[in-house]
Amino acid sequence: MPSMTLPRRPALATAITAAALLSACGKDPKPAAPAVPEVAILTMATTNVALNIALPGRTAPFLLAEVRARVDGIVQERRFTEGADVRKGEPLYLIDPAPYRAAVKSAEAELQRAQATLASNVSQLNRNRVLVKENAVSKQEFETAEAAQLEAAADVAAAKAALDVARINLGYTTVTAPIAGRSSVSAVTQGAYVQGSAATLMTTIQQIDPMYVDLQQSSSEGLALRREIAAGRVRMEGTDAAKVSLQLEDGSTYTRSGTLAFSGVTVDQATGSVTLRARFPNPDKLLLPGMFVRASVSQGVRQGVMRVPATAVTRTPQGTATVMIVGQDNKVALRTVRTGALVDGFWLVDDGLKAGERVIVSGVQKLRPGTVVKVAAAPAAPAAAPAATAPAAATAARQE
């Protein structure tokens, strides 16, 4: 019997060991704790933001004069170079003056005749004045002589006026520049017949230094700005509020700044816009009439506003603006806000946030309200740009 039980002990120990190993392998490992998401935040603080609005426009000359014929005749000379600058009063054309010189001489002769008649009548009147006292002539003869003298004086006045007209018409044969500026293409050539009655266009002169820029602003934007000013949220700071900068057709920036000359007071019924006119110095003649430009018009400074990066703002299907904020317990909450203008990549927040609240600016894609997050070092809010631009389309996109 002993010889039969000894071989069982090693087999039993082996079975127990294998069972223990199988039990250890089948036990589930302890799950690892989920990672806490890390987000970057921006702590809200109020600041002042310069509001500029970008508007399209076209350049227009400061002065524009159409040079037209004022007498009839044949053009004998053109005395200027097309496209050149001309001075005020500089001769531009010569219309055949011969008929008008003859008219002046005829008017001079008529004046001399009228003056001679007047002198004769004055002498006759003086003689009759003495004779009527001596009853040498009748009172009727004296009155007739007096009327003749008055009529002769009127003839002299009419002759002088006719001579003045003749001299003026002779002067019109030399066509001069009414303003100083740059001449355009001549509309008539030597030998052409022009008419004063039809006011034949001969050329055009434009003064382009300074230069006007006519801009169009929607009436809704102007209304919103006036409301901001009335509420004290926007202040017009002296001459700085009237500054205008210009971007040319090729994308370059015009080196000289302009000033706002006036703002229209009537809304165009066809376009719903108001005309703004800015004035720019143009000594280098870089700006030409009719150029398409974009102007940035300073419209004051928004006081005590909070700014949120555009990337931190999301919108619901209904268009409501929302942001994610981090509470004191580091839990995420969804906050509805009301945004104003988009200025230099930042939405101006009109309502929904308070100073000191922490807004998530990155890492919001997979977050849900109530999620606990790890907050990165909060960056300071960037300083407001001194000349931030608020495009017209963004200014209009105000969420109520």
From TrEMBL:
Domain Multidrug resistance protein MdtA-like C-terminal permuted SH3: 308-366
Multidrug resistance protein MdtA-like barrel-sandwich hybrid domain location: 65-206
Gene Ontology BP annotations: response to antibiotic
An annotated GO cellular component: plasma membrane
Pfam families to which the protein is assigned, alphabetical: Beta-barrel_RND (PF25944), BSH_RND (PF25917), HH_MFP_RND (PF25876), RND-MFP_C (PF25967)
Domain of life: Bacteria
Sequence ranges assigned to domain Multidrug resistance protein MdtA-like alpha-helical hairpin in this UniProt record: 105-173
Multidrug resistance protein MdtA-like beta-barrel domain sequence ranges: 210-300
InterPro entries cross-referenced by the UniProt entry: MdtA-like_b-barrel, MdtA-like_BSH, MdtA-like_C, MdtA-like_HH, RND_pump_MFP, TAT_signal
Subcellular localization, as worded in the UniProt entry: Cell envelope
Cross-referenced PROSITE patterns: TAT
Entry GO MF terms: transmembrane transporter activity
Transmembrane feature ranges: none
Family: Belongs to the membrane fusion protein (MFP) (TC 8.A.1) family.
Protein name: Membrane fusion protein (Multidrug efflux system)
Taxonomic source organism: Massilia aurea
